[in-house]
Request: fold
Amino acid sequence: MKILRISASDTIDIRHQMLRDGRSREEAIFPHDEDDQTFHLGGFIEGKLVSVASFYFENHPDLVDEYQYRLRGMATLPEFQHQGLSSALLKMAFPIIKQNLCSLLWCNARTSAMGFYQNVGFEKIGEEFDIPTVGPHVLMFKKI
Ligand SMILES: CC(C)(COP(=O)(O)OP(=O)(O)OC[C@H]1O[C@@H](n2cnc3c(N)ncnc32)[C@H](O)[C@@H]1OP(=O)(O)O)[C@@H](O)C(=O)NCCC(=O)NCCS
Reply:
């Protein structure tokens, strides 16, 4: 397994397949993907990109930390799941976020992935809510 910085455009195929299946490819392009403070990580197995995650300098209105990062577009191709790839991407991201003087990472987690986020140290806050066309979510955060 190898973890590398990748470009926003590298993330789109896996995002589209895993997070916006059946919808247009454009819906897998997220706002601020190309911002200077945004970074994208990819997990590679035998040279093939199989896992992606993106990190945005963005505060959540319900969280008080002064500077925060947001995690979006976390996905691992089905045949490569449960091998520690997403956890490895997050572990690589934490020091980069800290270097940017941010102490908190948050995400709107799909309820189906809550177990994963809890495993890597995220806590749930607030009630479940629905994101139209995507499904039930919950706000989760991790102090880093
Ligand atoms: C959630 C997801 C990103 C996890 O990726 P992954 O590369 O399989 O994650 P890891 O292998 O690093 O898993 C880390 C831990 O979480 C557990 N885990 C993984 N997916 C889980 C899930 N859906 N529910 C509960 N636990 C999960 C693993 O067993 C592992 O724990 P362990 O090492 O103690 O056994 C992956 O299942 C996925 O792409 N799902 C579909 C897209 C999605 O829902 N993304 C999240 C959007 S908010």
